[in-house]
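Following up on my earlier thread - several people asked me to post the actual chain instead of describing it. Fair enough. Here it is, all 180 residues.
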Amino acid sequence: MRQTYGKKRGNPGTLLAQFGCMQTSGTINAKLSRTFLIWGAAAILITFTAAGAHRGFFLSPVTETVSRPEAADRLTPVVSALQTGNAEALSHYFDSYVDLTLPDKPVGSCSKSQARMVLRDFFETYKVKGFQVQNAAGNKDNPGYCVGTLQTLGGNFRTSLFIRQDGETPVIKEIALATR
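Reply from S.P.:
Thanks for posting it. Predicted structure:
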């Protein structure tokens, strides 16, 4: 459906009048444009913060960023489970709900037991040969993320894990598998 504002489509004067503003000069238009820009940027920032908060990330400076080997060492049990394709062992590190993305079907947010069953089926279908960490980062309290390649008989998959730390245990919030 095409939306028009007044007689001319996209006329800024009638658009502003629709929002209860009067167009008297270009100065008011410029001020309103800056206001909309500032509010739009604030909305994006709030959305980004809220979207990252469910993964345990916040828009704050990260101190003591851990190098790849140290972050990967904290994830050793998770990496071992991925290397063997053991969904049961991997599920021990799942949060109560996990966001799951697979290349062959959309899954979305699912419970710990549902995610275990879906990954078990995926691992049985593709027969995992190994997993290699390419990048892992975070800080001493929050491993953050791990990106690697899951090698299977059906091909290689780019694997992304978003993780938060619960005491000494890594907790997987999101797993995304994509074909390479």
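The radius of gyration is 23 Å. That should answer part of your original question.
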